[in-house]
Amino acid sequence: TFHSVPPQFLQNILEFLPLSIFLLISGMFLKDDHLLHPGRFVIGRFRRLWVPYVLFMFICLLGHNMLANIHLYSDHYTAEQIRQRVFSVLTMQERDNLLGCFWFLKELLYATMFSFVAIKLSQWLLGDAYHPAVMLTVALLVLIVATNFYSIPYLAQITTLYPKTLLATAIYLCGYVFAHTRWRSLSNWVTVAVLVALSCWASWGYDDNFNTTWWNLPRFFFTTMITSFAVIYFCQMLRGKALSALSYIGRYAMPILLLQ
Hints:
- The longest helix has 25 residues, at 38-62.
- This protein has helices spanning 8-28, 32-36, 38-62, 64-69, 79-90, 103-126, 134-147, 163-179, 189-203, 217-238, 240-251, 253-259.
- The two termini are 13 Å apart.
- By secondary structure, the chain is mainly α.
- It is globular.
- Helix 1 (8-28) packs across helix 10 (217-238), helix 3 packs antiparallel against helix 6 (103-126) and helix 6 (103-126) crosses helix 8 (163-179).
- The chain contains 12 helices and no strands.
């Protein structure tokens, strides 16, 4: 469906949703209770994101040659190639054609950890003056770093970090801010209409399919925020069933990724 809907700008809007909606909802579900129990939260994130990633990646890696014999893969690995990929799996850098959507688990885990540290550090530095809206400034700073990623000394040498990882962190932080401020009170049909119109305008003519190497990160960030908030406000206006659908996505994220 994503790749066959005319006109082009509508297809572009649909391209925004998978990444941003998952990250925004995850950020919205970051509760104050999670911040009060950091050890339990971090262990839970690794158990839900890192463990499934490593498990399924190892299954595909160890069974790669057998699956290649039935043409599910185009090449065979030597024993040395398999050993080299073990580290990539453990650091969540490995990509597999059969688990194409699993790259999201790595970006979500890194975004969660970066956001968690940023929030805790901001609370410690600001004390009683801390307000969740402060993290919107942090999100914009992260976006600036992502935009200038390859021009910042030594940053590009971190093999597990990419611009899209920082982009995911900025989106996650926006979800956290949205859930902890009064922005939700803007939920009305006028807001939905304005955001949809802005989304159509921003994505018009943007037809490079957001290649990960050549993304215009600021434009992608702001357009995906507009589009995602339009969907969230629309669901709030519909109430019950739509909110239940979002909750369902949150509870069954792993089966949804596997099905995709």
